[in-house]
Amino acid sequence: MSATTNILVVGIGGQGVMTATEILAEAAIALGHDAKKTEVAGMAQRGGVVSSHLRFGEKVLSPQITPGTADVLLGFESAEAMRWQHMLKRGGITLMNTARLVPPVVELGLFDYPDDPLAEIRKSGNKVVAFDATTIAQELGDIRLGNTVMLGAIADHLPFGAETLLACVLQRFARKGEKLVELNRRAFEAGRAAVGAAEAALA
């Protein structure tokens, strides 16, 4: 990765896109990086589309990622991952949840939901690692764990160790009881494992 790391997180309102970006920024700052982030939400509370930019490095002047410069695209929803492919740099990577959550822009006729978002992304030539974060969260007992699954998914694609990110995730739940801390630990590790297995299948 370059001296500045650019991560674009996209999805649907209510999935935890902004929270995930906050935690990623916290992890970067904990290691001494300068970090800037910005969010764009369209009807976020109603399931609208959400994108969140994060840039960190020795010195970051702007939070905005310019098209073609994102190192990692973290897609909480498959069609949103497809729609933002133009932001990735050559050699960048997409980590995407295969869940299909149709946003209001489709119902309004502003966007046709693709038949196969994953196939469309693969046409771009960039590396794409796909996994079902939503099902993983449901199997752990709470769909809201999908946010932590996605953070686990990106953990091994950052310029710092996964343990730093995990510590920031668990800190969020420290006051809510050991049970919730352990559930999020399992979700994080499940996300890491899912990406590892998906990457091994691509090799």
TrEMBL record:
<dbReference type="Pfam" id="PF01558">
    <property type="entry name" value="POR"/>
</dbReference>
<dbReference type="InterPro" id="IPR052198">
    <property type="entry name" value="IorB_Oxidoreductase"/>
</dbReference>
<keyword id="KW-0560">Oxidoreductase</keyword>
<feature type="domain" description="Pyruvate/ketoisovalerate oxidoreductase catalytic">
    <location>
        <begin position="13"/>
        <end position="192"/>
    </location>
</feature>
<dbReference type="GO" id="GO:0016903">
    <property type="term" value="F:oxidoreductase activity, acting on the aldehyde or oxo group of donors"/>
</dbReference>
<protein>
    <submittedName>
        <fullName>Indolepyruvate oxidoreductase</fullName>
    </submittedName>
</protein>
<dbReference type="InterPro" id="IPR002869">
    <property type="entry name" value="Pyrv_flavodox_OxRed_cen"/>
</dbReference>
<dbReference type="InterPro" id="IPR019752">
    <property type="entry name" value="Pyrv/ketoisovalerate_OxRed_cat"/>
</dbReference>
<keyword id="KW-0670">Pyruvate</keyword>
